[in-house]
Amino acid sequence: MRRTTTPDPRPRLRLWAVAGPRVATTPVTAPRRRAVAGPGIATTPVTAPRRRAVAGAGITATLLAAALVASGTPALAAAPVATSAELPTAPRTPRAPLVLSLPAPTGERPIGTVTLHLVDRTRPDPLLRSRPYRELMVSLWYPAKEAPGLPLAPQMSRRAAADWDKNSAPPMGIKSGAVDWAATRTHARVGAPVDRPAGGLPVVVFAPGDGGPRTLGTVLVEELASRGYLVVSVDHTYEADQVEFPGGRVERALPLPEKLTEDVIAALIRKHSRARVADMRFVLDRLTSLRQGNNPDADSVPLPPGLLGSVDRSRIGMLGQSLGGSVAAQLLHDDPRVAAGVNLDGGYVGPVARTGVAKPFLQMASEPHTRETEPTWKSFWDRSTGWKRELRLTGARHGSFTDLQALFPQLTGTLKNLPDAELIGTIDPRRSVAAQRAYVTAFFDLHLKGRPTHLFDRPDRRHPEVKAIP
Questions:
Q1: Of the residues 74, 137, 390, 396, which has the fewest C-beta atoms closer than 10 A?
Q2: 292 touches 277 (CB < 8 A)
Q3: What per-residue confidence (pLDDT) applies to 418?
Q4: Can you give the pTM of this predicted structure?
Q5: Residue 90 CB coordination number (10 Å)
Q6: Can you tell me the distance from the alpha carbon of 129 to that of 33, in angstroms, rounded to the nearest whole number?
Q7: Is the pLDDT at 71 greater than 70, yes or no?
Q8: Quick one: DSSP state of residue 144?
């Protein structure tokens, strides 16, 4: 029986939800006690008691708590204790956990999915050096033939959902047990036959934000699959909050160093970025193997009918949120197999911040994120010489570019003191999801399928929240 890792009590580095592209760790002084401005977050030093308070939740908790303290927002604390006069006179019936739903994709194609276990034995694990190989979990999403008898895939697998409930949700103000995370269903049939055209399917590889699981990009991933793309979402083991492997083994993110400073965090992010770039190159290699008719799964799980040979290697794009967006740019720069890329609100890490790219690239920003507030965006933009567009989503925040945009509003009527303004902003959730789907799909349709669009030429009255930045 495969083991399940024991949760580490120390915090971990999680930037996908609130941190934005830059992080500072200087103390929050009185003049700086204001709403967090721009993409960065100033965090108070992490003392021993606070380490215990955010144990197992990573820097998402640390940064979010500090941001809310800095802005004077009382969140993530326990609800006020009732006085004796307020206590109920009869025992309460326990409330059943909430079951959340994801918005259905708008494309015309039904979709299928399969999860693969990939093992790279050519390199030791870059984050856990005692491991002589690197292993990843990826999900493939694709246009499928009708298969109503097959089950709908869950957004999160059972043990990953349990770990998320215990360790990742509470720092966002969601008490463990309040939500049945394993009950959320996607719109993809597990193992459905692939509906592929002659010549194969264009490919988009999705990278989540630092520390975020691949499942938090499901809304956009399903949309692309319903519009004819083979989408590969990737978990980066020992960085993602939790990754569930075959047999129920769960590998959790490695703990942070005891002392967090700006330099320590920056070095960790660079390390994660390098590991991710190597991971993505390996995933692209496995896609080539799939194109050649080989099953890339380490355990030789049966593949859906039609998946072998379905990859069109001449049409590959990268899509990433937060750090995943920076990795998308780096792969676009480094790897000739990648033809186009999208960055969802991520600052740039590594050489690509200085070199830019010469291929088509779209960057979408939350409202506080500008080239003036984020120097790497300016240097990347100035040095990029290919087709490029920058769009800003009015009212959005860093977490708006994750599935939290669709999930959090379902909680606000039931759970109190949720920091949703810090996580997903004030934009209407449905309009935010619709705009992201429209522009990301139009970009890949233009550059991977050759379909003309006027969406990037002028403002679109269907999406007034989207502002083009010249």
A1: 74
A2: no
A3: 86
A4: 0.84
A5: 5
A6: 41
A7: no
A8: B
